[in-house]
Amino acid sequence: AGTQRARASAQTSLHVPYGDGDGEKLDIYFPADPSGTFPALVYIHGGYWQCLSKDESGFAAPPLVSQGVAVVAVGYDIAPKGHMDAMVLQVRRSLAFLVERYPGIRGIYLCGHSAGAHLAAMVLSTDWTEYGVAPDIKGAVLVSGVYDLEPILHTYVNDALNMSREVAQRNSPMLCVTPAAPAATACEVLVAVAQHDSPEFRRQSQEYSQALRAAGWSVSLLDLAGVDHFDIIEKLSEESYVLTQVGEELPSSL
């Protein structure tokens, strides 16, 4: 319902192609006056890389759009059609496309839940020289994410993904943390985990946030009481945690 409301109220561009693939599309919810410059929150959906889509991702849009923030929901080819390497590449390309296509965007905030947090974390380790652009990523909110794919290799989740050990290692954010860029382009990373997330999720969130911190990133770990793996993202959007994170960086006019 949140997505439908967002689509009705905002200036919206749906299914904007950022590539030729079927899944390579963005839904963009613009602020009321998109003529100037505005920050953008880029939301990457979860679903264990094999279900859900950008179409359920508009729930965060109304409160943000009303405060002058564009919200972008990223689509990618989920498994079995999409392979892990391809999904990571797609999400990176979607950001390069956004920056080139919408010069009004000033500052990008990534937000991802579960598999989406994994993909957002992989975006943080991108070598942008290959893309010819440098998105100004000011913040990332990684919610109940997976940062080491190896434990998944022997679970049902890998039935559709069909990852080899090499693919899992190559696409594990834990194993490709890059040194933080100079302070001028500092990016605030919030790693959020639910009290009732499984021990594996909780362990990975702690270890990934420590690895980022050790590499010089600015990181906070948020352990949310009373929520589980699925309702944590609703809680975060309802209580404007994401907004507050983004808000600290935004112009005081908000």
From TrEMBL:
Annotated GO biological process: L-tryptophan catabolic process to kynurenine
Record's keyword annotation contains Cytoplasm: yes
Keywords assigned: Cytoplasm, Hydrolase, Nucleus, Tryptophan catabolism
GO molecular-function terms, A-Z: arylformamidase activity
Alpha/beta hydrolase fold-3 domain mapped to chain residues: 41-229
InterPro entries, sorted: AB_hydrolase_3, AB_hydrolase_fold, GDXG_lipolytic_enzyme, KFase_ver/fungi-typ
Entry's transmembrane regions: none
Top-level lineage group: Eukaryota
Gene3D superfamilies according to UniProt: alpha/beta hydrolase (3.40.50.1820)
Listed name of the protein: KFA formamidase
Lineage start: Eukaryota, Metazoa, Chordata, Craniata, Vertebrata
